[in-house]
Amino acid sequence: MPLERELKFSVLDAYVPSLSELRAALGPTPFDADAAPVEEIEDRYYDDDADSLRNAGLALRRRRLGERAWAALKSAGETDAALHRREELEISMDGSAEEPGWPDAILERLKAVVDPAELRPRVDLATTRVLFRIRRGDEEIAQLGFDAVSARTPGSERSAFFDEVEIEACEGADLADLERIAEAIDGLVRLTPNPVNKLERAAALLLMATW
Predict the structure, then answer these.
(1) How many whole angstroms separate alpha carbon 167 and alpha carbon 5?
(2) pTM across the whole model
(3) Residues 165, 191 contacting (CB under 8 angstroms)
(4) Which end of the chain is more exposed for a tag (fewer CB within 10 A), N or C?
């Protein structure tokens, strides 16, 4: 599966810098930024009652963004403070995103660890993402997202809210590029390295909501 590389940070509030503020912060670096449309992302994660996917270090997701939809299977991968490296198989499901059914490439991998018929929705995430494209000259090297996340347990009143910043590497970017971008942003928004992914954080907060 392709390798996803990104830095993840927790933030204390939902402040998002303007494009002019971001460009000024990046001024001493070789990078510049362009604003991208705000994204409203709907994610639903699946597992069986025995948490077979989680126990195998996998996460299964359906994502909707406007009229587009994808299925994704992700590994737990490796984390080092803010750095996350993990394999991700993501396949477009445009026109066929309704339950049931998964793309064949994902289904074959699922069958090794879980009975697909036993999968059910476990966590819903709704994310408002303010997105910037970070480039060096004309080359896009990273996507910078300021995420306001609402988490919910399907069929339940339990909910949780949190804010994150993600810097995801594009092809050709290296870790030093991501770290330099993060250092620049930290002057605008205090970034705290986050060693867990959105699903893990949401699951933990939703569990706390039952106490």
Answers:
(1) 9
(2) 0.92
(3) yes
(4) C
